[in-house]
Amino acid sequence: MYRYVIKPFLDTILSLCAIIVLALPMLIVAIIIKIDSPGPVFFKQKRIAKDKKTFTILKFRSMPTTVPHDTPTHQFKAEDMLSPFQKFIRRSSIDELPQLFNIVSQRMSIVGPRPALWNQSDLIEERDKYGANDVKPGLTGWAQINGRDELEIPVKAKLDGEYAQTLKKGGIRAFMMDCKCLWLTVAAVLRHDGVLEGGTGAMEKEEETEASKEPVEK
What we know:
single chain, mainly alpha, globular, disordered C terminus
């Protein structure tokens, strides 16, 4: 009942309310992005949805247009390439706000595993082990509030699996877990917890030496 009826209803209502409330701030952000650097206001990228189907995620562009388009976050060090405003919207997660439209269209949920890139096979395969690909991806999630960019892929996938299993069982426990994720997300964003440009997210820490590869949107 919660997973299939209540949660989608809350996703739609809350995201629509957020879009209305944040319409003016998002317009201001869009204008600054256009002035700040050449390129489009929005960044679009193919991501993995429920049951490993694909969808196009929508974000504010927070990087130069010269960077590669489909490289995972843990493979870059972009700090020197970003403008002060780009650094700000990435660290404050403002660049994620357009995903509210993905939620309204029911391709995403407010809470769920963060959507993997279509070519991020290591994370997708790890999530398969825990059933985390069986639920809608989210704007925030259990892994996000427990480390975000600092987590290695096996740890992230396991936490995503814990959330997925709780959601599948439904009931008050699933609802309370969603509430906890939302509450702790606000606190984490305000503190900029777990935000690492060129952070981990690799299968093993030794692979962090590959982080010198070209940057892309996270």
